[in-house]
């Protein structure tokens, strides 16, 4: 009987190759301790902490982005008065913005350095100022206002009448609550208005009854929502 020939040298080499193969090292990244939010996030949080309007927040963020990209994505911490001067001058000379727009950009930059970066801005030098235009404001006559209101109905008509008769801004009108209306004293209390200030304005006699009817309607809708499992404030 013929026995199979076993090549022991080949087997030994194979075992040696397996044994000497280096193990794969997996290096896990070290957790970072820097949890500081990004610049625009810090800016947004600082604006909201001071109860500025969402429109102001969006405007300031827009101008800070413009400022950063104008200087080729440099961080504002690395820039100072000369870069601010160059940006504002460019707005007036090349982009031909209005004086109010240029001032708006300057306010956004000052806010960033003062309240976010905690840096004082010194003399920014001779900035070429945008030309200030003078326009005569366009004011609608009583008949024109009546013509506009006559083409409205429902909630929109009531809102426009309130804004015209009481001087409420759009968001102040939308945020008006039942407890802010005093029918007995013909007053409306505006909460957290412009500049985070409260104020009192008059309630026209002609709007009292439409407002009462609107409140009855909204109360009915609210009670119906509660019955259906909705209408609760969490």
Please characterize this protein's 3D structure.
- The protein has 234 residues and is mostly helical.
- Among the domains are: 39-116, Tyrosine recombinase, N-terminal domain (DNA polymerase, domain 1, Orthogonal Bundle), CATH 1.10.150.130; 152-216, hpI Integrase, Chain A.
- The protein is built from 9 helices and 3 strands; from the N terminus they run ααααααααβββα.
- Strand 2 and strand 3 (199-202) form a beta hairpin.
- The model is unreliable at 8-19 and 26-33 (pLDDT under 50).
Topology-level CATH name of the domain at 39-116 = DNA polymerase, domain 1
Runs in which pLDDT lies below 50 for 5 or more consecutive residues are 8-19, 26-33
Radius of gyration: 33 Å
Lateral strand order in the biggest sheet: 1-2-3
Tell me how many strands there are: 3
Which of globular, elongated, flat, extended, rod-shaped describes the shape? extended
> Can you write the helix and strand succession as a string?
HHHHHHHHEEEH
CATH superfamily of the domain at 39-116: Tyrosine recombinase, N-terminal domain
In percent, how helical is the residue content?
40-55%
Strand fraction: under 5%
Which CATH architecture of the domain at 39-116 is right? Orthogonal Bundle
Secondary structure elements and pairings:
Elements: H1 8-19, H2 39-49, H3 54-70, H4 81-93, H5 99-116, H6 142-150, H7 154-166, H8 170-174, E1 181-182, E2 187-190, E3 199-202, H9 208-227
Helix pairs in contact: 2-3, 3-5, 4-5
């Amino acid at each position: 009987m013929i026995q199979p020939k076993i090549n022991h040298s080949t087997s030994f080499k194979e075992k040696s190759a397996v044994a000497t193969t280096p193990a794969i090292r997996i290096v896990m990244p070290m957790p970072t301790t820097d949890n500081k939010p990004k610049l625009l996030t810090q800016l947004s949080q600082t604006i909201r902490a001071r109860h500025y309007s969402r429109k102001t927040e969006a405007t300031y963020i827009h101008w800070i982005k413009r400022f950063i990209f104008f200087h080729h994505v440099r961080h504002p911490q690395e820039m100072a008065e000369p870069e601010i001067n160059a940006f504002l001058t460019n707005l007036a000379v090349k982009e031909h913005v209005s004086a109010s727009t240029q001032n708006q950009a300057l306010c956004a930059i000052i806010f960033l350095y003062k309240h976010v970066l905690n840096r004082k801005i010194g003399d920014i030098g001779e900035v070429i100022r945008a030309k200030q235009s003078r326009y005569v404001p366009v004011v609608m006559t009583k008949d024109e206002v009546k013509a506009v209101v006559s083409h409205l109905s429902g909630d929109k008509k009531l809102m426009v009448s309130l804004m015209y008769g009481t001087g409420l801004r759009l968001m102040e009108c939308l945020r008006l609550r039942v407890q802010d209306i005093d029918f007995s004293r013909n007053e409306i209390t505006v909460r957290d208005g412009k500049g985070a200030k409260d104020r009192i304005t008059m309630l026209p006699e002609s709007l009292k009854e439409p407002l009462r009817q609107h409140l009855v309607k909204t109360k009915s809708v609210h009670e119906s929502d509660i019955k259906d499992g909705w209408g609760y404030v969490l």
